[in-house]
Amino acid sequence: MNNYIKVCDIEKYYGTASHVTKAIDRLSFSVNQGEFVGIMGASGSGKTTLLNLLATIDRVSSGHIFYENTDITALSEDALSEFRKHNLGFIFQQYNLLDTLTIEENIVLALTLQGGGKKKIRETCDRLLNLLHIEEIRGKFPYQVSGGQAQRCACARALANDPVLLLADEPTGALDSRSSRTLLETFTGLNQKLGATILMVTHDAFSASYCSRILFLKDGKIFHELIRARKPRKFFLQEILDVLSLTGGELPDAQ
Fold first, then answer.
1. Which of 30, 83, 134, 222 is packed most tightly, with the most Cβ within 10 A?
2. CA–CA distance, 222 with 251 (Å, rounded to integer)
3. pLDDT tens-digit profile, the chain (255 residues)
4. How far is CA 13 from CA 110, 213, 222, in A?
5. What's the rounded Cα separation, in Å, for the pair 112 and 81?
């Protein structure tokens, strides 16, 4: 497999000279094309900071992040904006849909921002609605659908630019257990059938058990890694819970 993302010895500091907080401490890892990687850790471990750095929302204090041959740490703000627009897809805990637009219109808007003719936009929108199994709610507004359906719309919108990487920040945090399972199965389908590369930050062991690999953060460093391989998900879930119990991580109820 090809390394899509390569993180090389990055550090991130916050604060002033008199009071500096090191959020990320000389962190290195890579993500291969087609991987579904989870980032876990207790509050304050650095997982959200890491996601923001990978998402080009924040900049490293030192080190480098490569997307294939592009060193995003060397790009200007304008170049970063263009890179983000054409290469990254984002899925957030709170969906971030526009309430004044229908489900379909939210997706069409994202496609329009990418450019292309009306016919192509319509065809792509129809494909995404079908792919995410939300074609029956295309004419409804976000407040008229369930949280799980809204999150699948957000997922469709994130796929609008055919991203190199899907970045998901606690995507099941606002969902009930049934909707969480449906969304995670959707991620698995995107990963296995379309070869989508996904990086998901989560505190939830059940959600993480759908990943193919998990990096555990503590004090801004990777202290452990789990690889699912061919293990049944319930065994992988237990391994995750075991690591969290040993490290003081958050232990939500398994679903």
1. 134
2. 19
3. 567 899 999 999 998 778 888 999 999 999 999 999 999 998 889 999 999 999 999 999 999 999 998 999 999 999 999 999 889 999 988 888 999 999 999 999 999 988 778 999 999 999 999 989 999 999 999 999 999 999 999 999 999 888 889 999 999 988 999 999 999 999 999 999 889 999 999 999 999 999 999 999 999 999 999 999 999 999 999 999 999 987 665 554 444
4. 33, 27, 17
5. 17
